[in-house]
Design brief:
With 725 residues, the chain is an alpha/beta fold. It contains 27 helices and twelve strands. Helix 25 links the parallel strand 11 and strand 12. It is elongated.
Length: 725
């Protein structure tokens, strides 16, 4: 509640800050260039052209591979795609895009090189990427491509250009991959044909040299064994080649495709799908920020992470298995080769010529079989390429870009909202910053909270106008400027104001203080000490005016100036200070001699007297106690003015012998630490504190507080003293 009052008290600062921020927001809207935004929505499906296997789980193919879609989003913002868009739309010749800040290199200039053209194209691509936003729509295969620029028609062209260029670029990349696979197979086929031709030439030459027309291995056991080894070698070679090709295809196959048949992946997929279905169902009832929804979202993310790990692990196992099979097949080939060498050595002596001839025939047969296999695989690759080129594309446009009809930025509504929000936050922050940086006490409520004691009165600042009511300050309402200036030049001292201007609202504030003081304790209140934390907080003024308003009740009142260091009461009443309290305490005069009458009926004063060298010892002496006791016997009420508590310890001594102490604090001057330290010193000395007076209160806005005293001036009839003033 105190903070609310603090904000209400400084509402002008908050309002001014808000006004400045809103004005800056409007100026930003007026001065900022108008930007337009057009967007195209694409659907990107995950596909594979691998022929080694196919996933039995289409849902897993769509999202399980966490690397596929992020790669596509990154490609959409790549410089290479942006350069293709520049060429496709001829943006290098479009003044709406290039403007005048960037000029194309002139082809006729000998100094212009291909590197200059590349840098110019890269610069245009960079500007294009600067206005591009790629926003995937969570939970779907859709992605929004938006481009922001100053020309509405250009924004729509660029957004559609990015979409179409990306589709064509993807198709070209897929064709390139198929071409590379086909070239690999064609190279292998060409090598085999050369080997077969060389072997046939060797066979013919060997037959002419040995006069062998045909070989009949049926009668030779070694040759039969060598024949079987050659058949096994051909099969092993074909198997090794097939497994090598399968391993290479698996290297470029998506992990989700390879893991489609894994039981563990299927189970994790089912768990994730159930969690997502549960999330979508609960989303109809709860908001995403609901704790249960946040926890469920975390479970879904964890399940997806485990599913991705299982997919990668299963795919890695498949690839490692294929690699192991390939290596095993190669090992079989090498083992058969060793056996062939051994069989050749065994049959060399028996029929070396026939074995060599038969071996050449077997090698030719084996290589022809390998050639047939490679030709079959090349045909399959060609079919896959034709399907990829003629079939539907995995990227398609869902919503084409439209020419925007209104600017995207700046937005007056958004600027005003942001200016208002920033102004409020900044204004409130400034209020609290000023409050916490300024350690002075600013309000009666704050003073009461620090002291833990009641605030008996709030005394307002007194200005120069005698017609001002309690609650205003500065120029008097209802008067001309010349009259107000004349009144300020007259000047009004607050000392003795209740006597000279009893109808003023400030005088009523002191009378209110008198009433609160009399009701502050149930014990008899006869001797009251008035002090403050530091000098200049109005303790002497408070003591003077308290004595005056008590005397106005018809009581016999004594005002004692116990400030033996800097006395001031004798100047206010314009009496001699040669004989006073010090004279009584040193025994050089009797109390009756030191006490003098004043112009205020019922009020007498005892000035401080000569300045002593030891004020604290005098105030702590037994004669001071006897002086106060004699004053109790003679007067109805005694007010003692003392020095500040934090400056010297003089106030503690008479305070301990009085019925209570009243503390005076000046608004917007005394620090919080001084208030609490003053209170603690008096409590440590076991001095009874009756309450506090808040002097010179002058809150922002010209109003002290809403009370009945605000209208006291208009209610009371003007007195003769007021009229004379």
């Amino acid at each position: 509640m105190a903070y609310v009052r603090l904000l209400l008290g400084r509402w002008k600062l908050v309002a001014g800050t808000v006004g400045v921020c809103v004005t800056l927001a409007v100026l930003n809207y007026v001065m900022s260039p108008k930007l337009y935004r057009a967007s195209t929505t694409l659907q990107i499906e995950q596909r594979t052209l691998a022929t080694v296997s196919s996933s039995r789980n289409p849902w897993l193919d769509q999202w399980a591979s966490m690397k596929y879609l992020p790669t596509q989003y990154r490609l959409l913002k790549s410089r290479g795609l942006a350069e293709l868009v520049v060429r496709r739309l001829h943006l290098d010749d479009d003044p709406a895009f290039t403007g005048r800040s960037q000029q194309a290199p002139r082809s006729g200039d000998d100094a212009v090189t291909a590197a200059d053209d590349d840098r110019y194209l890269a610069g245009l691509a960079g500007r294009l990427i600067g206005g591009l936003d790629v926003d995937p729509i969570e939970g779907t295969e859709l992605v929004e491509i938006a481009w922001t620029g100053t020309d509405p028609e250009l924004t729509a062209r660029v957004a559609d250009g990015f979409a179409q260029t990306f589709i064509e670029w993807g198709a070209a990349n897929r064709a390139t991959s198929v071409d590379e696979a086909s070239r690999y197979l064609e190279q292998q086929i060409a090598d085999l044909k050369v080997q077969i031709q060389q072997k046939e030439e060797q066979l013919q030459q060997y037959g002419r040299q040995t006069d062998i027309v045909a070989a009949d291995p049926g009668t030779n056991v070694a040759l039969q064994r060598l024949n079987r080894l050659n058949e096994q070698y051909a099969a092993a070679q074909s198997d090794a080649l097939a497994k090598e090709q399968r391993y290479r295809e698996l290297q470029s196959t998506a992990a989700s495709t390879l893991a489609g048949e894994s039981t563990g992946v299927s189970n994790l997929e089912e768990q994730t799908r159930q969690l997502e279905a549960d999330y979508e169902s609960k989303l109809q009832t709860y908001k995403p920020e609901w704790p249960e929804m946040v926890e469920l979202k975390g479970q879904i993310d964890d399940a997806r992470r485990r599913l991705q790990q299982a997919v990668d692990r299963a795919a890695n196992e498949v690839r490692q298995g294929a690699y192991a099979e390939w290596q095993a097949a190669l090992g079989t080939v090498r083992r058969i080769e060793q056996q062939q060498d051994q069989a050749k050595s065994e049959t060399l002596d028996a029929n070396l010529d026939l074995v060599e001839y038969y071996n050449l025939e077997s090698e030719i047969s084996a290589r022809r079989q390998m050639l047939n296999d490679l030709m079959t695989r090349l045909s399959e690759a060609g079919v896959s390429a034709n399907l990829g080129q003629s079939g539907p594309n995995n990227v398609r446009v869902v919503d084409a870009a439209l020419v925007p009809s209104a600017p995207f930025r700046p937005s007056l509504k958004r600027n005003l909202g942001l200016g208002l929000a920033v102004g409020l936050v900044l204004g409130i922050g400034l209020v609290f910053a000023f409050y916490f940086l300024d350690r002075t006490v600013k309000s009666p409520d704050e003073l009461q909270s620090l002291l833990g004691l009641p605030v008996l009165a709030v005394i307002p600042e007194v200005s120069g106008s005698p017609t001002e009511s309690y609650g205003t300050y500065g120029a008097s309402p209802g008067k001309s400027r010349g009259e107000r200036k004349k009144n300020r030049e007259v000047g009004v001292e607050i000392e003795l104001l209740p006597e000279h201007h009893p109808r003023w609202a400030v005088a009523e504030a002191y009378r209110s203080f008198r009433t609160a003081l009399m009701l502050s304790t149930a014990d008899r209140l006869q001797v009251v000490t008035v002090t403050s934390a530091e000098a200049g907080e109005g303790k002497t003024t408070t003591a003077l005016n308290l004595a005056v308003v008590m005397a106005q009740l018809g009581r016999k009142v004594l005002l004692v100036d116990a400030d033996l260091r800097k006395p001031r009461i004798h100047r206010v009443f314009k009496v001699s200070n040669r004989c006073g309290l010090v004279s009584c305490l040193t025994g050089s005069a009797e109390p009756e001699t030191a006490i003098r009458s004043t112009d205020v009926a019922g009020l007498k004063v005892c000035t401080s007297g000569p300045t002593p060298p030891n004020p604290s010892e005098l105030l702590a002496s037994e004669r001071m106690a006897r002086f106060l006791e004699a004053a109790r016997q003679t007067f109805d009420f005694v007010v003692v003015d003392t020095p500040p508590v934090l400056a010297v310890s003089d106030a503690i001594l008479p305070g301990s012998r009085s019925d209570g102490v009243v503390l005076c604090f000046r608004a917007n001057t005394v620090h919080r630490e001084a208030v609490t330290e003053c209170r603690d010193r008096l409590r440590f000395a076991d001095v009874k504190i009756l309450g506090a007076v808040f002097n010179r209160q002058r809150p922002v806005g010209g109003k002290y507080y809403k009370s009945s005293y605000h209208y006291y001036q208009s209610y009371a009839e003007p007195s003769e003293a007021d009229s004379a003033a």
